[in-house]
Design goal:
The protein has 408 residues and is an alpha/beta fold. The chain is built from eleven helices and 18 strands. It folds into two domains: 181 residues, 3-Layer(bba) Sandwich (FAD/NAD(P)-binding domain), CATH 3.50.50; 154 residues, D-Amino Acid Oxidase, subunit A, domain 2 (D-Amino Acid Oxidase, Chain A, domain 2). The strands form three sheets. Strands 2, 3, 8, 9, 10, 11, 17 and 18 form an eight-stranded mixed beta sheet that branches. A five-stranded antiparallel beta sheet has the order 1-16-12-15-14. Strands 4, 5, 6, 7 and 13 form a five-stranded mixed beta sheet that branches. The chain binds flavin-adenine dinucleotide.
C-alpha cells in the first residue's frame, strides 16, 4: 500500500536507530507478530517477560510505516463523541470503552518510562473547541457525559477561552491528563525493552503467505525470502496494510495532511502547550514537540487514491499554516517537514480486533481511527491477555462481530 508521501520529522530525532537482522532460517515460536510499527511494538511490550517465545517480523525497518507520519496526540476522546457511540453500542459498553481508553493512556505512559530510549512522553491537557455556535450544546452534552463517568473535565466559556488563548471560540471542553509522544522513539524504545527480554525482532522480513497445520495446530507463516515461521498464535499488526493481507469491510480510508514547523523561539502565549482540536469536520489539530516545534494536522480529504492525496499536499501545507496563524498570530512558524498520508477508520467509530475462520489462532489488530496509538495499546493488551491467560473479558467488545444496538 502506498501509505504516505512527503518528509518526516520523527525519524530525524533518533540519530542512532537500532537495527535488527533479517530472518535467515526457519523458526518456531509461540507468538509471531507481523509488523514492526508502534502496534507490533506495543504487542511485543505486553508479551515481554511472559515466558513465551515471540518473534516480530517487519518487512522494512521498524517504525517506517504510518508510525513515522503519526502526529501522536494521545487522547481518549475521538472523532465520534461518546454520546454518539452510546446510540450504537449502549451505555454499559461505552462506559467500559471509556475506562479502557483511560487505562491505555496510563499504560502508554508506563511503557514510555520503561523504554531505554526517551519517548518524549508528556502529559498534556486538551482544548476541544466548538467550531460554530450550533456545536456548543453537543459539546456540553459530551462534557456532562464524560464528567458523569468520574473523569476530571471542565466546560469553558468564551470568556475563559479568550483569557487563556489568543483566539476565541464560543465554548470548549477542557480535559486533563491526555498526552503527546514521539512515535518513532516510542516504537524503538518499547521494542528495545522487549528485545532485552528475549523478544526476537527481524527487519527486512516480509510475510507473504500462511497455512494452518491442523495436526500441529500451528500457523505456518511464509516469508518472501522462503523461510517459515511456525507459531501457535499470530498477531497481524501490519497497520493499514492488514487490509491487504485480509480484507475487513468495516475499515475505511481517507487522506490527511500534516506540517511540522522549525523550532519556535517563544511558545509562552500558548496556554500550557495544550493539545488543540475542534468540532469542525474536517478538523485541524495542533500540538508542540519536545524541541519546541509545532505540528498542525488535519484537513482530511475523502480520497484513498495516492495520486489524488499527494496532488493536494503543497496546498494543504499552506492551508494548515494559515489556520495556525489565525489562532496564534503572535507565533511565527516556518514549515520544515510536511506529509500526506492515508488514515484508517472503522465505520462505527470503535477500533477492532479481527478474528476470522480462515486465519485460525490469529488476531488482526485494526486500531484504526484518530486515536490509533491509544487504540493499539488497548487492543494489544486484550490480545496478549487472550494469549497468555486464555481469555480476556473485553475481547467481545472489539471483535468484528461485536453487538450493536443499531446496524450500519
Ligand atoms: C498523519 C497521521 C496522523 C496520525 N495522528 C495520530 C494521532 O495524533 N494520535 C494517534 O493516536 N494516532 C494517530 N494516527 C494513527 C497512528 O499513526 C497509527 O495508529 C499507528 O501509527 C499505527 O501503527 P501501526 O504499527 O499499526 O502501523 P504501521 O506504522 O504502518 O506499522 C505496520 C508495519 O507493518 C509492516 N508490514 C506491513 N505488511 C507487512 C508484511 N506483509 N510483512 C511484514 N511486515 C509488514 C510495515 O512495513 C509497517 O512497518 C495518525 C496516523 C496518520 C497517518
Amino acid at each position: 500500500m502506498n501509505l504516505q508521501s512527503g518528509t518526516y520529522y520523527w525519524a530525524s530525532t533518533l540519530p542512532e536507530v537500532p537495527s535488527y537482522p533479517a530472518l535467515t532460517t526457519n523458526v518456531t515460536c509461540d507468538v509471531a507478530i507481523i509488523g514492526g510499527g508502534s502496534s507490533g511494538a506495543q504487542c511485543a511490550y505486553y508479551l515481554a517477560g511472559s515466558g513465551l517465545d515471540v518473534a516480530v517480523l517487519e518487512k522494512g525497518t521498524v517504525g517506517s510505516g504510518s508510525t513515522s507520519a503519526n502526529t501522536a496526540i494521545i487522547q481518549y476522546s475521538g472523532e465520534k463523541m461518546f454520546t454518539s457511540l452510546v446510540h450504537t453500542f449502549g451505555e454499559e459498553y461505552v462506559a467500559r470503552h471509556l475506562k479502557l481508553l483511560k487505562q491505555a493512556i496510563d499504560d502508554i505512559e508506563t511503557a514510555s518510562r520503561r523504554a531505554p530510549i526517551d519517548c518524549e512522553f508528556q502529559r498534556r491537557d486538551t482544548l476541544y473547541a466548538a467550531s460554530c455556535a450550533e456545536d456548543v450544546e453537543r459539546l456540553r452534552t459530551e462534557y456532562e457525559y464524560i464528567r458523569e463517568h468520574g473523569i476530571e473535565i471542565d466546560f469553558w466559556t468564551q470568556a475563559q477561552i479568550e483569557q487563556a488563548y489568543p483566539f476565541s471560540r464560543e465554548a470548549a471542553i477542557y480535559s486533563y491528563q491526555d498526552g503527546e509522544l514521539n512515535p518513532f522513539r516510542f516504537t524503538h524504545g518499547i521494542l528495545q525493552y522487549a528485545a532485552a527480554q528475549g523478544v526476537q525482532v527481524y527487519e527486512h522480513t516480509e510475510v507473504n503467505g500462511h497455512h494452518y497445520d491442523r495436526e500441529l495446530q500451528r500457523m505456518i507463516i511464509r516469508t518472501k525470502k522462503g523461510h517459515e515461521v511456525s507459531a501457535r498464535y499470530v498477531i497481524f499488526a501490519a497497520g493499514y496494510e492488514n487490509i491487504e493481507i485480509r480484507n475487513e469491510k468495516q475499515a475505511s480510508f481517507v487522506s490527511t495532511y500534516t506540517v511540522t514547523t522549525e523550532p519556535v523561539a517563544d511558545l509562552s502565549s500558548w496556554y500550557k502547550r495544550t493539545l488543540l482540536w475542534e468540532t469542525a469536520r474536517p478538523y485541524i489539530y495542533i500540538r508542540t514537540t519536545a524541541d519546541n516545534r509545532v505540528i498542525i494536522g488535519g484537513l482530511d480529504e475523502n480520497t484513498n487514491i495516492p495520486e489524488d492525496r499527494d496532488s493536494k499536499l503543497l496546498h494543504k501545507k499552506d492551508q494548515l499554516i494559515t489556520e495556525f496563524n489565525r489562532r496564534f498570530p503572535g507565533i511565527t512558524v516556518k514549515p520544515e517537514y510536511y506529509s500526506a498520508a492515508f488514515y484508517g477508520g472503522i465505520v462505527d467509530g470503535v477500533p477492532m480486533i479481527g478474528k476470522y475462520d480462515d486465519y485460525p489462532s490469529s488476531y488482526f489488530l485494526l486500531a484504526y481511527g484518530d486515536n490509533g496509538t491509544v487504540y493499539s495499546q488497548l487492543l494489544s493488551r486484550i490480545i496478549v491477555q487472550e494469549i497468555t491467560e486464555g481469555h480476556s473479558p473485553d475481547l467481545a467488545m472489539y471483535l468484528q462481530n461485536r453487538p450493536l444496538l443499531v446496524k450500519h
